Amino acid sequence: MVTASYKSDYIRLTHLRRLYSGVLALVLILLFFGGFYTADSRNAGGFFDGLDRLFDFPAEVLGEAWSEIDGLPALLWHYMPSLIETVNIAAVATLIGAIIGLLLSLFSTRGLAFWPAGIPLFRRSMDIMRAIPEIVIALVLIFIMGAGPIPAMIAIAIHTSGALGKLFSEVNENCDMKPVDGLASVGASWGQRMWFGVFPQVIQNYFSYALLRFEINIRASAILGFVGAGGIGYDLRNTISWGKGRYDDATAIFMLLFLTIVLVDQLSSVVRNRVLGDQK
Amino acid sequence: MIAGTPSPDLRGQSLAAIKRRSLLCFAIPGLILAYLVYVFFAFEVNDAFEDANLDNAKILVGDSYSYKTVVSHDNRSGRYVVAIEGEKKGRYTPGAQPAWVSLDGENADVDLADGYRVTIRDREVTFIIPNYGQITALPTRRGVEVELPDGPMPSWINLSRTRLNVKTPNGRISVTKAKTTVFRYFFGWELFWFTLDSPYYGLGFTELAAAAVSGEKNENGQTHALAIFQDFWFNPMWRHGEVAWALVETVLMAFLGTIGAACLALPLGFLSARNFAPSLIGRFGMRRLFDFLRGVDGLIWTVILSRAFGPGPMTGALAILITDTGTFGKMFSEALENVDDKQIEGLKSTGASPISQNRFGVIPQITPVLLSQILYYLESNTRSATIIGAIVGGGIGLLLTQAIITQKDWEEVTYYIILIVVMVFIMDSLSGWLRRRLIKGGA
After folding, report:
1. Phi then psi for B11, rounded to 5 degrees?
2. Which one has a higher pLDDT value, B199 or B305?
């Protein structure tokens, strides 16, 4: 009977598939625990020893901050300029990255490219810009230019250009070519075709991606500060460096950073929903 | 509205809208420009670029593709040392120096190629430079006595009473009363495969391959293949073994953090999805927990965790794990809320238990979304692990920061940067390949 053979085939395949999934899961679990064990043995303190000490440091920090709670508003005010610097680094880097990413994405989208032969070149250069971690560029630039916000800004901008360029070019690929062709038929230049034919279609998506990136960049800018690029991360390193213990300062910085990230997170999701909502 | 006869009101409205729009078109670039100008002054961009140390940049670029061999003469003891990069690990044993250096007691001849030549005769240094002439320098007890050819002193000679520095494209010399040093530059990375103490130093690839496959044993009773590998792997200058471990540690941090976070976030995602968790309070609590985990940035988690667990890859992995649990939790719960109810209802109608309903009705729907997010984060976390490694002291990030802080091993910095980029590329293509295989190929 034909149906019976289908049935047995189906069951056999299902079993095979289950076997593969099981083996894959087992390998993953083994890798995970093997990796955990390796990482644990190469760590200075063990996982299980550290587990009960996990809350010691936060408790110590909060305890000291609580005993000097009166000074907290002043400290929050004191670290405001550093916070503004961190946010500025992120904002400028996002802005510059978005502008460069926009050009790169236009240059690397089929049908829109100014110079179609160069598409692979621009794509690869975006891949490289995305692949180099920000810290590499930041540290090298700090060596050349000295500590300050500019190395971090350049580093984040380069990464952002690559990341946004890729997302933007995906948006471009979905855009309707009719307005572009129409503009081309009346003799519009490349710039005019992009400005009047493409941008009105894609600008909302661009904006939403750029906002999302801004969120990510604030975190990156705080982390880069920690390795010497200025801003609030740098202050954080100074206040919590081993043995010093100015924990009321550290608490103020933690709070500022936390509030900023949550605020930007919420704001950007509201704005993005509104912008993308308009589109629908 | 009547077609064909637009009311004047509508025309006015459209004109106003267009006017608003065109105003916006100018206002937005204007605002961006104003902001950039503000930042230009806030960051003191001008000063920063003026203060930029271009010599550092030159050293960095030069070191990244070339190395120097140093011949130094101690003017008091009369001893010569020939060493690659001037490092102890790269020192030639006396009598085994390269052919372009000939030493004879107190005297030395150093050939810098293309007619450039340095001779040292009992402390007196003579540097012959084609198209310029001959520089002689005699270190004395009070300083350095120098004779230059006639004419104005070129900018590549730097002379004071106690020190002479001459930089030429073929090499550099520096003479002080205590020490005479000659530098010759070579293209490439020094001792990348073997250090000088290895018997395999200076052998070509074919010779090495022949020794490796011959099966003969060296004086220690090891096969050549093993000894070649060991001399390379434990090369004291480049420490290939340690670097490989650091790369593994970095990938491990990303792997443990991402997979661990995904495992934690899946059940938590169920608890905070509207269609699976009936309790409003519980859902609200879970949501705020995710916001908290994400809001306390990875940087802060890293700082807190490294106090409890000490420096190392485990700390980095946990920092990634905690931050990403928040991110994944939010994403997974959103994916769960978008699940199509029809399949669950279908299963319900056949009398499936709640577990079977979730297993066969929900999991297959969300797996592609989850997998693609997890794989994307795995790649992105490899980059984060590099940075976190620099802070918690683990992985390639630590090696990179250390090499940059010493400010002299720029060839190692270049090596690490190349390795990091290659690592990220591999993770990127691996995650892309898996995504295509598991999501498109599996369906």
Report:
1. -60, -45
2. B305
